[in-house]
Design goal:
By secondary structure, the chain is of the alpha+beta class. It is built from six helices and nine strands; from the N terminus they run H-E-H-E-E-H-E-E-E-H-E-E-H-H-E. A hairpin with an 8-residue loop joins strand 2 and strand 3.
Length: 298
């Protein structure tokens, strides 16, 4: 229980009424101001938690709550509100777009008391829909932030080149021949790029288009199934899908290395390739400083 900022005490010896009245008239008033701004109030104690979750984005209009549409954030908030019996706002590590998947997503929320994290994880999974799963809930430092404390994020984009009914939900079919060697050469140019305006959705609320990409490459996962892996400290809206669309134009021979570099330098979204479908994109990893986690042994 928080201590009260002021506790009145009774004097040991009561002075005569007349003497008290005379003394009060002789001294300035010691009464505390009535303005509540000047009244110290106890600060409520809160605990911050990180939620690690994954989801299939096919049924959702992205992560962020939007009017008249279903989002992952809304579904998770409703589940937490039901279990904790009070409105629980959550903050995500990023805003995945419509149909985009997440093998690894982080969000945080605050609560006034310590929570049994394993039990809460179990109960959340009981009431969440089958396309959202919570892997873990972790106690973190009060200043830890799911979005701003992240140091790196990794996305995968999958394409396949021969019709396969088992790839279609999480990969994009491209049957034209692609030169993946050239696509990887172009992807290396991203490592020396800082301004990604050419690959950003227009008219966003981003304050800067500066990103630091530390990995960008294509690898063949299975015969005919290719994966693009990209890691950066942050990503812009639509950035990965626009990069993939432009690299595919390189693979088709429609854009050479000089033209790809020129697209980056022009800082014009209209010069880059088309945005690829969201269902083949997945957020797969987010990195944080180890010291923000307080119950790493759970």
């Amino acid at each position: 229980m928080c201590a009260l900022p002021f506790k009145a005490t009774q004097p040991q010896n009561r002075a005569p009424a007349g003497a008290f009245k005379a003394d009060r008239l002789a001294r300035p008033s010691m009464r505390l101001p009535l303005n509540p701004i000047h009244t110290p109030l106890p600060i409520p104690f809160t605990v911050r938690y990180f939620i690690r979750l994954s989801y299939d984005g096919a049924a959702y209009h992205g992560w962020q709550v939007q009017p008249n549409t279903l989002s992952v954030q809304e579904a998770l908030q409703q589940a937490l509100t039901t279990l904790l019996q009070k409105p629980i706002p959550i903050v995500g590590a990023g805003r995945t777009d419509t149909a985009v998947n997440a093998h690894f997503m982080m969000a945080h929320f605050d609560h006034e008391a310590e929570l049994p994290t394993r039990q809460l994880t179990y109960r959340l999974n009981k009431i969440l829909p089958p396309d959202i799963a919570v892997q873990r809930i972790m106690h973190v430092t009060p200043e830890a932030h799911a979005r701003f404390s992240a140091t790196a994020r990794t996305y995968h984009y999958h394409i396949y080149q021969n019709k396969n009914p088992f790839y279609r939900r999480y990969a994009t079919l491209i049957t034209t021949p692609l030169n993946f060697k050239r696509m990887n050469e172009a992807a290396e140019l991203l490592l020396n790029t800082t301004d990604f305006t050419s690959f950003s959705k227009l008219h966003t609320d981003a304050k800067t288009n500066i990103c630091q990409v530390t990995q960008a490459c294509w690898t063949e996962v299975e015969p005919g199934l290719w994966r693009f892996t990209i890691t950066a400290n942050r990503f812009l809206r639509n950035m990965v899908r626009a990069i993939v669309g432009t690299l595919i134009e390189v693979g088709r021979g429609k854009i050479d290395m000089e033209e790809f570099q020129a697209i980056i330098s022009r800082k014009d979204r209209q010069q880059a390739g088309q945005s690829m479908p969201g269902h083949a994109l997945s957020l797969v990893d987010i990195r944080y400083p180890a010291e923000i986690f307080l119950n790493s042994d759970e």
